[in-house]
Amino acid sequence: MFRKLTILMLALAVVVAAITGCSSTELKIVNVNEVTHSVFYAPQYVAMELGFFEEEGLKIDLVNGGGSDKSMTAVLSGDADIGLMGPETAVFVYNQGKENHPIIIGQLTQCDGSFLVSKTPYENFTWDDLRGKTLIGGRVGGMPNMTLEYVLRQKGIIPGVDVNVRTDIQFNLMAVAFEGSDAEFVALFEPVASLCEEQGVGYVVASVGAESGKVPYTAYIVDPAKIEQNRDMYESFMRAIYKGQKWVQEHTPAELAKVLVPQFPDSDVALLTKVAERYKSIDAWKTDPIMLEEDFIHLQEVIEDAGELTARIDYGELVDTSIAEKIVAE
Length: 330
What we know:
- The protein is built from 16 helices and ten strands.
- By secondary structure, the protein is of the alpha/beta class.
- It folds into two domains: about 25-110 and about 215-330, Periplasmic binding protein-like II (D-Maltodextrin-Binding Protein, domain 2); about 115-210, D-Maltodextrin-Binding Protein, domain 2 (3-Layer(aba) Sandwich), CATH 3.40.190.10.
- A five-stranded mixed β-sheet has the order 2-1-3-10-4, sandwiched between helices.
- Helix 2 (about 40-50) crosses helix 11 (about 230-250) and helix 11 crosses helix 16 (about 320-330).
């Protein structure tokens, strides 16, 4: 009797395993540190919400770093397997002479993701309306502020001369500082910019990304030693991201908004649809994760324009497209 019961239990276990497939404990955990949590990174969240990572045998442990410098610290310390941040951070680390510097293996966004928010509405806003005003721009050396100031100079507006650009506010506190200060403008990511509109705090008057041109704005950065140890994992990760990128391109803002709701519980579908429409309108998302050399060169032009680049870096020294090219070719 005991033998028959044992056989029956084993058979049942096989059936249950066949029905449920791999359990979550069998998924490989990947620690990802993202610079901030924004709809701007929609393809990544689509991959998470639609099970693309699980299809690749991965489970994402996502941490909000609260700034590129903090995300890079997580990568350098080994706390993060992958950092999602501005690639300018990798440029700075390389130029510090670090021998085993992190490398860029994939790109998620291709322009600045911030929107200019004003305390007062403008029927016909022009960038000249910033003259004589105070603008909260972000951290010195951070991609948001460097791209913003690049656009200002392209418009003939000199930061610190024609407009007061505040760089003393922590990135995730900029909206709060804007509401409680005398600054007339602030540059904010979504969904925060649209939330400001919804709450009557300000009005979106322009897109920084629409003016800056294509810039490899947000990228996946890793320690190359970790790739050597577990290349299959990184290939699986980028494959899931690529699935997310393709899904975003093939679906409407309304469809995207419904998928994003669990990631942004404080935002409803209507608001997320509005945000998705804004990002689609400026072609914010890359259609594949391959960072192009001409875009990397433009990135360094923006950094150089900000006075933050000590030396130009060859594309191949910092960017490794082998994984991205492999999964796109599959």
